[in-house]
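Late entry, written up from scratch paper. The run itself happened at the end of the previous shift, but nothing got recorded in the book at the time, so transcribing now.
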Amino acid sequence: MSDPHTAYEAWINRYEEAWHSPSSVPTMSCPSCGEKSLRLIFRIETADAEWGTAIFWCESCLHGLPPLRAPLPDGGERVLRGFEVVPNYRLVIDDSAS
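Output as recorded:
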């Protein structure tokens, strides 16, 4: 995808799909490279948290969304802060505001 705004929108749309169906993430194709290597984890501060930081990226091309605060979906992978293993991936951002 060459248009950054379009790429960002595609990632946001895929994140929404992933949030609503966390168990389907391994079968979803990456908006950037097309591989089925997406990961979505929710970094939490405490085991009883209702909100966390969503971290969404592709293991193949190492692109993904900036981490964002989000409510925790049923079935989402929760990881306590300090125990998450996240690669240094390239952020897909919305350049339309600049």
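The first helix runs from residue 4 to 20.
(Scratch paper discarded after transcription.)
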